[in-house]
Amino acid sequence: MSDIDRPPHDAPSDIDRNLIDELVSFYNGALQLINCSALFEEKYKAVFETHPTIWRAYPELLVPEGKSTVESVLAVGFPRSVDIISAPSGSVRTLLIFRTESGLGVIETRGGTALSETHVSADSERALLFHQARHDALTGLPNRRHFSDQLQTSLQLLGSGRLALIQIDLDEFKPVNDTLGHAAGDIVLKMTADRIQSALRQGEVAYRLAGDEFVVLQCCDDQPAKAERLAASLVSALREPFMIDGINVFVGASIGIAIAPDDGHDGEQLMKAADIALYAAKNDGRGRARTFNRSMLVMLEQREMLRRSLRVALQEKQFFIEYQPLVGLSRGIVGFEALLRWHHPYAGVIPPALFIPMAEADGLMGKIGEWVLEQACREATTWPPHLIVAVNLSPVEFLRNGLTDRIAGILDAVGLPADRLELEITESVLLERTTDNLDVLNTLEVLGIRIALDDFGTHYSSLTYLKNFPFDTIKIDKYFIKDIQTNRKCQIIVQFIIELAHGLGMFVTAEGVENAGEASWLERKKCDRLQGYLLGAPMPAEAIRDFLRQSSFVLQA
């Protein structure tokens, strides 16, 4: 059993002094061994050869008196002492049996001495402190302190075997806390721990490191195949909804796998490899597992190079904007969406999906976003006066104080009427600070600025957003449009969104329109605006005048 190790060096001094050199063991409600002191592990090595239980460690307790003592402690909770006699030698040992949160604890002492209730209680409290210092109070799993020592011990004893470190991170845990509260978040964490435990087999131990981070250690020779099978089952188990107060909550998990000794000979190296693999899993779309390989490290190093370059990109004027047309089915071209681009001096054009999350994480998106907004509004003043400009507003920008003042200042500075600016926000913005968000959106509406809800249907998609927030336009994500001609479910969803928006007095824009068949279907369903390569690819500002002069869109069914 791998969930056995020594107390942490930074454990309380009374635990170190009193328990490291004692025979202490802990058992769950099924009386299976879950933790013990190093001395116990050394003395009872044979116990770990098969499924270790209290009866395997102390078969003398199988007699009626021993069984009744164990059952009494489990049922009543008061600590008890019992003397047992070893069959071969006839020596007497005394067991102090006490209740813990997860089951029972046992301290073995030399027998033949009567123990007072005070002595029993003091020893059981010390042993309980030892247990609590090494276990997470919320989930009951071994904690980070416990994990660090066990990882070091396992690596030292690895020999010719292989050790898998399986790092688990919940994908959508923060929205649970933000929308349902921390009590609901605690329930999700407990249920997560239970699901992880249920998937484990002999030689596999789960730990909670912090927050929504968990890890499993798995010792076996068949690696990484066995770790990947376990990771797949964990992803599947955590994909199922959690029921919280009658609400189905979907969280999901991403997993990174690292194998010792291939990916690291010490705990720090192995954790770094698992972190990189976990990052790759999230970067590939979340809800999946990835096993570390060297190419991931190269990619991460490249990303770090880009991250460093990003800090000077604005000053060195490496950013530029392309504009993609928005076409109204009844009015032709109604405007353009401003799309940020980055031309790196050595790497070429960097996709926005790669660098925008970096900019947000590093606190750079505020300045970049201001530049995009001012530049796009300035360009729009050179267009025909009926055309709008749509600008994406990242969650980081939206949550910055003084947003409405900055936007109003930019519009005044460049001379663009407010009703020619459409700000696009995603549903994820609305998960944070709901009251403040409503105030911001209402202020923007009062200023006359249009507001579009971007990528509708791909995030949390609560209809309360449409009820509570003042949107002018809903944008249907290209995920639903690409199969619109053949997928009946996509057709029903898109038609529902169009009818819902029109019923609420909102316009609808369909993104990712690539062919005439999609455009014709959307026209029949009275979608207001189309956007996609069929209507026009993103173009530099200087190409817009020629595009307007040459464009003519006739989209008949």
UniProtKB/TrEMBL annotation:
Residues 303-552 form the EAL domain. PROSITE patterns: EAL, GGDEF. It comes from the Bacteria. Gene3D superfamilies: 3.30.70.270, EAL domain. Residues 161-294 form the GGDEF domain. Pfam families: EAL, GGDEF. InterPro entries: Biofilm_reg_signaling, EAL_dom, EAL_sf, GGDEF_dom, Nucleotide_cyclase, Rev_trsase/Diguanyl_cyclase. PANTHER family: BIOFILM ARCHITECTURE MAINTENANCE PROTEIN MBAA (PTHR44757:SF2), DIGUANYLATE CYCLASE DGCP (PTHR44757). This is Diguanylate cyclase (GGDEF)-like protein.
